[in-house]
């Protein structure tokens, strides 16, 4: 059971991409052969056409799916596609069918494997055509294309390329979704769902510069869960992880959606960034989070714990004309350090409180 799942997981995408178009091509090829040959198609020498039209797509899919190197096997299948197409054209000396088969083979090879695969496919195709030119066509010559064959050829081209267009659309959508997922994972803390330190380092400076450019305030809240280490030591890391995740959920409910954001700074420390918010608003938000956390009962299985949190709040007010130039152009590092000073004061004063730090008064700024 596990082996089957593993094999399916490792299956190369081009195996599935080629499967449906190959079925369509095989069925249309059989239909065209029937139109051109009439009842003669039932003769023994044409039995291979039925195998090709009915079983061949499933055989090639099975071979590629079971192969250790599915991509290489599928490329071999495509070479065999080209050779068998050439053999089919050799018994149907029809210019319309020949041009249709050639266009489809070239487009398919370019879509899947670019020029290297195209050269290999065309070599296999040419091998069959050379055989036809030497041993078949001199005796049969090319016949005029009947209108039913033209209609079927046209339908085949439309359906075949339409199928590839639809497959391309869904593959592109899936690729975009996966790209977004990877980008999200690269900037998200997997435990809490908050942004990670990488996102904080990359975006806090941008938020500060934007606030300066648009002339609005920005507030940073540095928060820490009080005595969190004792929760891990006494109740285990599973409950500790639940506390961190629940804390972020609580904090998100207290800040503005799609405006403010929260990042995990490290361990049980978090930073909330509030664009277009002054220190008073930041203190209000911090107090709201503090109260919600202190009233919340954190639970995991049969374990329960209550915990408090401390906050340091600092703001850059770009509208404050009394602020020094150094304050206005404060870097992200200085802003975080100042908020950390506020957090330290909150801890010194007994924890479970909010301390607002005046950026102007900080000597480091």
From TrEMBL:
Pfam families: GGDEF, MASE2. GO terms for cellular component: plasma membrane. It comes from the Bacteria. GO terms for biological process: cell adhesion involved in single-species biofilm formation; negative regulation of bacterial-type flagellum-dependent cell motility. The keyword Transcription does not apply. Keywords: Membrane, Transmembrane, Transmembrane helix. Its cofactor is Mg(2+). Residues 216-359 form the GGDEF domain. The keyword Transmembrane applies. InterPro entries: Diguanylate_Cyclase, GGDEF_dom, MASE2, Nucleotide_cyclase, Rev_trsase/Diguanyl_cyclase. This is diguanylate cyclase. Its EC number is 2.7.7.65. One of its GO terms (molecular function) is diguanylate cyclase activity. The chain crosses the membrane at residues 45-64, 98-115, 122-139, 151-171. The lineage of its organism: Bacteria, Pseudomonadati, Pseudomonadota, Gammaproteobacteria, Alteromonadales. It comes from Thalassotalea euphylliae.
